[in-house]
Amino acid sequence: MADIGQVIDSLRHGVIVSCQALEHEPMYGSHHMAAMAVAAKQGGAVGIRANTPADIAAIKQSCSLPIMGIYKQEYPDSDVFITPTLHEAKQVADAGASLIAVDATLRRRPGGQTLQQLMQAIKMLDPGIGIVADVSTFEEGVNAMELGADLVSTTLSGYTPDSVYREEPDFQLIRQLAALGGTPVVAEGRIWTIEDCRQCMEAGAYAVVIGTAITRPREITGRFVRAIQRER
């Protein structure tokens, strides 16, 4: 596995493509996501974000780009579901991810474990794996930086009770976190257009993660259809 510093350097000013599909969607399946990752690489992506050990392993076999892995799992005592415990993190690491993204919000975690405890356990599991902190607020981002996250991502902005949903990317959060001048900030969430991407970079993003706008044809088609219907 490449040195984590080299992996992070390779992401600078690049596009990371999130290759994910829900079970009820036609593109669901590891073979589809692996093909999507290869297409993303051919298009110039610098990394892939993927969910589940199966998808990560399939993409690893087909595509040489670094993988930001997650494993979404729900627990009855917590609303945290993006790689919520070490159990999921280990499976992501074993599948071949270079980076593990975790929910880094301040919400109660499964079993009452703290974010600090999880991050320390991941580093003990494999010091060579980078940790991406998915946050929804400035406070959460600062906390994750102080705990030693390798990257901080705005993934959860607008999707937690502590944050405000908006139609566009959270440019303000990107700008606030990037202004700290420390941990690299990844922009993710509702990046639909080239202009969105540009504004994220202008706000100080180290890299951008684009998912639905690239890899979910059903949702992409639906946006065009709804736009036409509104014009009638």
Question: Biggest sheet, open or closed, and with what strands and sense?
Answer: 8 strands, parallel, barrel
Helix/strand/pairing category: alpha/beta
What are the low-pLDDT stretches, counting only 5+ consecutive residues below 50?
none
Instruction: Please give the CATH architecture.
Output: Alpha-Beta Barrel
Strand order in space, largest sheet: 1-2-3-4-5-6-7-8
Head-to-tail CA distance between termini: 54 Å
Beta strand %? 15-25%
Organism: Paenibacillus hemerocallicola
Function: Converts N-acetylmannosamine-6-phosphate (ManNAc-6-P) to N-acetylglucosamine-6-phosphate (GlcNAc-6-P).
GO molecular function: N-acylglucosamine-6-phosphate 2-epimerase activity
EC number: 5.1.3.9
Quick synopsis:
By secondary structure, the protein is α/β, with parallel strands linked by helices. It has one domain: Aldolase class I (TIM Barrel).
Architecture overview:
The structure is a single chain. This protein has 232 residues and is an alpha/beta fold. The chain has a single domain (4-231), classed as Aldolase class I (TIM Barrel), CATH 3.20.20. Helix content is 42%, strand content 15%. The chain contains ten helices and eight strands. It has helices spanning 4-11, 30-42, 53-62, 86-95, 115-125, 138-146, 171-178, 194-202, 212-215, 217-231; strands at 15-19, 47-51, 67-70, 99-103, 130-134, 151-153, 185-188, 207-210. Strands 1-2-3-4-5-6-7-8 form an eight-stranded parallel beta barrel, surrounded by eight helices. α2 (30-42) packs across α3 (53-62). The longest helix has 15 residues, at 217-231. GO terms for molecular function: N-acylglucosamine-6-phosphate 2-epimerase activity. Converts N-acetylmannosamine-6-phosphate (ManNAc-6-P) to N-acetylglucosamine-6-phosphate (GlcNAc-6-P). Keywords: Carbohydrate metabolism, Isomerase. Its EC number is 5.1.3.9. Belongs to the NanE family.
